[in-house]
Amino acid sequence: MADEDPADDVELEARLADQGVFEPPESFVEQANVTDAGIYEEFEENWPECWEGAADLLSWDDDYDQVLDDSNPPFYEWFTGGTLNASYNCIDRHLPERADEAALEWIGEPVEEDNRSITYEELHREVNEAAALRDLGVGEDDVVTLYMPMIPQLPIAMLACARIGAPHSVVFAGFSAEALATRMNAADSEYLVTCDGYYRRGDPLDHLDKTNEGLADVDHDVETVVVDRLGPNGDDFGHDLDEDEHDYADLVADHAGATVEPVARDAEDMLFLMYTSGTTGQPKGVKHTTAGYLAWTAWTSQAVLDVKPEDTYFCSADIGWITGHSYIVYGPLALGTTSMMYEGTPDYPTRERLWQIIEEYEADQLYTAPTAIRSFMKWGAEYPANNDLSSLRLLGTVGEPINPRAWKWYYKHIGGEECPVVDTWWQTETGGHMVTTLPGVNDMKPGSAGPALPGLDVEIVDTNAEEVEPGRAGYLTVQKPWPGMLRTLYKNDERFIDEYWAEYSDTDSDDPEDWVYFPEDGAKVDDEDYITVLGRVDDVINVSGHRLGTMEIESAIVGVDGVAEAAVVGGDHDLKGEAVYAYVILEDGYEGNDEMRAAIVEGVEDAIGPIARPEEVVFTPELPKTRSGKIMRRLLEDIANDEELGDTSTLQNPGIVDDIRSKSDD
Ligand code: 6R9
Q1: Which residue of 23, 87, 266, 357 shows the fewest CB atoms closer than 10 Å?
Q2: If residue 585 lies in a helix (H) or strand (E), which one and from where to where?
Q3: Which InterPro entries does the entry link to (predicted)?
């Protein structure tokens, strides 16, 4: 970039700014996994058998009898009668050809010599050793909670669980003690793998203390395994293991070199649970099963992320979220590729860190979130320009809508205008990608995710379930089941129906045609079936690509001494996409001062984690409410975003909004 004529750059900027459609680069198309535009029609005509190809990407112990059993909607079953093991599919079957190739490239933080290249053979050994979890009593179908940051033992433990048929429930390490306890209680999980601590920006951070605080609130006995991540650097935390705490290294050492037969799991047996935020305070335990999920993540990794076994593929998400499950661990490893995992943050020790990693490892793909791209943009193009990013072949984004400006910056400054960008819309519940371009097939339109994947029936509808015209905003719905879909909410079929189906389905019907999945996102579609996702239409906000329930945050705030009532909304934020704005009513005798504000922020951090920290706390004597007593969050959003106020005529207290607005301006 340095020797470029600045005039060219200005011209280029202008051209990119005007451009609404980008063709897939020829050099990419020439080598892409999927290039035939006929795939859309072919899948439509051949539905649901079109998904046999995805199932063929897996190795089965017993073949399946039926692609889809839709006799009891919405409890769809896929590849029924088949048996397989996910750990076998992600490891063992690659050994004949790829034993010495890296399965995981782990880039630790901060000590360079910590980096580990873990070959498929080594992964095989370590996963077999970690199957020692059985010594603690873990049996098939016992839920094992994994509360670890981005260290190799996390994917190793996930695959060890899969090997012995024990579903895992990964709790993001940045979540609080309380969040851990809620999830362990909800899943009746009697086993936990955690670690002593980890590094953040070079400093050791205690994790076991938070774990133990969470365990104190778990309502049953738990066997805990502790990974020693920090070694002597953790000595200051002064942790000694209790009787019911086991040292990970000791546990696996007892099984050095042992191999454990992968348990043949039924296609529909649970592979894992992942808790995600919903409209109520109680997180939802999304249940994914073995065959459909694995087929979906493998197929989309191949078709959308263009993953090939010889690639070095980099997804910068945390494994504690669904993106890391599907697109660091299961999808890429099922395809036998090299998947990178980075423990640190993109700006430590410098803002070049990510680009140095990409150069050093010659990464072929980069899959990240718009919130990260907006930060890179703010920092400046000189950081990526200092590094050779020419190994990159494809770029991806996930987690929230990406604005065209950020899209174009990514395309130009990271991809050098030679990499397609896939903007992938999907959810924890969908298991994998749903709406995105196929990078070797479709043109790209910045800001629009693209058409629904082949074999999916996505419609944008109005409140009467009628399809809306192109250009008009409506609700995104999925009209037919797909293999990667969640099967239910753990132990709560009723809530599963209520949350995702009731809105647009005839819930008395047993005809699958009458069942429609509603992901609670708003969207619009253009003449070419390209879908622009507009964001959540429920009380979930999206901070830096992370889903947070406003109810969860509100109940944390109300838990703070002196708080009477609280309403939380998402306000626009340049970097985070959305930020948390809290409007709080105090009890008599309490004062809305900095101390109170700090207590509220702390209360939220304790209950959920730092990601949910309110950007602004506004004290108010009242909240805008309808006559039936419902808080009008829309008006609070208008205030947070400094926008003109919507209709206030249905309020019982219309004066309050101006009052709150003047307080927000202070
Ligand atoms: C994978 C993941 C899901 C919610 C989803 C939507 C938003 C995700 C998006 C996107 C616009 C995209 N979302 N990808 N919005 N464009 N490409 O993020 O799962 O944490 O469950 O969040 O994220 O609102 O409903 P999850």
Answers
A1: 23
A2: strand 577-586
A3: Ac_CoA_lig, ACAS_N, AMP-bd_C, AMP-bd_C_sf, AMP-binding_CS, AMP-dep_synth/lig_dom, ANL_N_sf
Q: CA 362 to CA 390: how far, in whole Å?
A: 8
Task: Tell me the best of 398, 403, 546 to mutate to test the pocket of ligand 1, counting ligand atoms within 8 Å of each CB and taking the most.
Answer: 398
CATH number for 19-85+264-538 (one of 3.40.50.12780, 3.40.50.300, 3.90.370.10, 3.30.420.240): it is 3.40.50.12780
Residues with CB under 6 A from ligand 1: 276, 321-323, 398-401, 423-428, 449, 519, 521, 533, 535-536, 542, 545, 547
Which amino acid would we find at residue 109?
E
Exposed / middle / buried, residue 247 (Cβ in 10 Å: 0-12, 13-18, 19+): middle
Rounded to a whole number of angstroms, the CA Rg of the chain reads: 25
Q: In the predicted model, what is the mean pLDDT of residues 91-113? A: 91
Over the range 374-392, which residues count as b (16 or more CB within 10 Å of their CB) and which as e?
A: bbbbeeeeebbebeebebb
Q: Which atom of ligand 1 is nearest to the CA of 428?
A: 21
The domain segmentation of the chain, as residue ranges, is 19-85+264-538, 119-254, 541-665
Fold of 119-254: Rossmann fold (3.40.50)
Q: What is the pTM of this model?
A: 0.90
Helices in 30-105 by DSSP H: which ranges? Answer: 39-45, 52-55, 86-90, 95-98
Residues 537, 539: Cα–Cα separation, whole Å: 7
Is the distance from CB of 370 to CB of 535 less than 8 angstroms? no
- Quote the CA–CA distance of 262 and 89 in Å, as a whole number: 10
Q: Which of 305, 397, 400 for a ligand 1 pocket mutation test, highest count of atoms within 8 Å of Cβ? A: 400
Nearest Cα residue to atom 16 of ligand 1: 401
The position carrying tokens 């896929």 is 78
Task: Find the mean pLDDT for residues 40-65.
Answer: 98
Could you tell which of 326, 477, 521, 524 is best to mutate to test the pocket of ligand 1, judged by most ligand atoms within 8 Å of the CB?
Answer: 521
Fold agreement (19-85+264-538, 541-665): no
Burial tier of 91 (Cβ tally within 10 Å: 0-12, 13-18, 19+): buried
* Ligand 1 centroid to residue 212 C-alpha, Å: 32
Handedness of CA 487, 166, 175, 316 (dihedral sign): negative
Distance from Cα 629 to the centre of ligand 1, integer Å:
31
Half-sphere exposure for 565 (CA within 13 Å, toward CB): 11
The predicted-structure confidence for 471-509, as pLDDT tens digits, reads as follows 888 999 999 999 999 999 999 999 999 999 999 999 999
Supply the residue whose CA is at minimum distance from atom 15 of ligand 1: 400
Cα 299 to Cα 449: distance, rounded to the nearest angstrom: 18
Q: Domain 541-665 is of which CATH architecture?
A: 2-Layer Sandwich (3.30)
CA distance 87 to 129: 13
